[in-house]
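Repro:
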Amino acid sequence: GQVHYNTSFCERNNIEIVETFIDDGYSAKNFDRPSWKRMETKLYKNRAQVDCLVVMKYDRLIRNTIDGLQLIHKLENRWNVKVLSAMEPYAFKTMRCPSRSVPASW
């Protein structure tokens, strides 16, 4: 499933996965998910060492478009963490993501 897509994407693009976060049984309609909260805390604390957050599809991250765009803006512009989609990799071709620490989830 999702972990396979993310792992394959990372392998093809020489991205090291340091941790996987899974919220089975929780909807992506909001951020009130246990693994999401853990991941966000770890990303914030380690943002200087993390280059990318890999998701299977952007809608696996969050269903609400406005919330999703705000989240991506925060991660990419404030924390300097790129959000990459394993199944929608069109944006990946235009950005550089060095192979360092990458949590892959959803």
